[in-house]
Amino acid sequence: EKKKQGPISLEWLRTAPDHEALEFLLSVAGLGRKSAGCVMLMALARKEFPVDTNVARVCARLGWVPLQSEAALEHLEQYPDEPEVHKYLHSRMMSFDQETLFELHYLMITLGKVFCQKRLPNCSACPLAPDCD
């Protein structure tokens, strides 16, 4: 006979310390660092800076993360991957408040999708072109 269970809740994450909430989220099968970071930032209103391919690409092109060489700017396969970019940026970004981190994350994803595409970036229309490597 099946035992009737109550509702499943993750509300306890709201009051858990950051490291415990992140550790739990990373233990969920199929939830990676970026998705866990998004839950922390957007659902739990915690200070976090998730990095996806768009954010990593924009950060590399803006010179916010070190590349192996100047030639790497022309070769996407030489860009650091998302975990490396996250590791490099995380401590540097934590001086911002949660609201700023949320806006920056959202704007960088939008910038990466609209202007800074992987293969054919639209640099001539990009608002950050003067600051871009």
From TrEMBL:
PANTHER family: DEMETER-LIKE PROTEIN 2-RELATED (PTHR46213:SF13), TRANSCRIPTIONAL ACTIVATOR DEMETER (PTHR46213)
One GO-annotated biological process of the protein: chromosomal 5-methylcytosine DNA demethylation pathway
Protein name in UniProt: HhH-GPD domain-containing protein
Species: Chlamydomonas leiostraca
Single GO MF annotation: DNA demethylase activity
Gene3D superfamilies listed in its UniProt record: Helix-hairpin-Helix base-excision DNA repair enzymes (C-terminal)
